[in-house]
Amino acid sequence: DVTLDPATAHPNLHLSEDRKQARGQLTRQNLPDNPERFDFEPCVLGCEGFTSGRHFWEVEVGQGGVWALGVARASVKRKGPMSLTRKEGVWALEAYHSLTSPRANLRPNQLPRRIRVSLDYEGRRVAFFSADDDAPILVYTGALFNGERVFPWF
């Protein structure tokens, strides 16, 4: 159960009152430009980060629209344009495409509405599954967390 960190949320992302949902909006909120806040890419981090262990969370992605989810190192670039790749410290899935270079088009048999993100810190692995039937969607191995805290990333 991930709680989103409002201090990191891009001004065009509106968080629900319970901080469990984020929705992109055209209207930019007037928020302080603190160092933690993403100011170019519409991203937000979860409040709780991890430096060890195995963790998983499920995300409802809904139908249509643009979404991305995964894991990011604490040092991920927050200001200005960034490439959302492993090199930048992001291991992610975007609307059934890998955020890798080059991008891989992933087409599960059925497009799940709920996706499970699985993090194995010591195993250096980030994986994405359909939460409905445990079908794998994408697996990153050999993730270089560099001893840093990593956070759920959206």
Automatic annotation (TrEMBL):
Region Disordered, residue ranges: 1-34
Short name of any one Pfam family annotated for the protein: SPRY
Protein name, per record: Zinc-binding protein A33
SMART domains, A to Z: PRY, SPRY
Gene3D superfamilies: 2.60.120.920
Positions of the B30.2/SPRY domain: 1-154
InterPro entries: B30.2/SPRY (IPR001870), B30.2/SPRY_sf (IPR043136), Butyrophylin_SPRY (IPR003879), ConA-like_dom_sf (IPR013320), PRY (IPR006574), SPRY_dom (IPR003877), TRIM/RBCC (IPR050143)
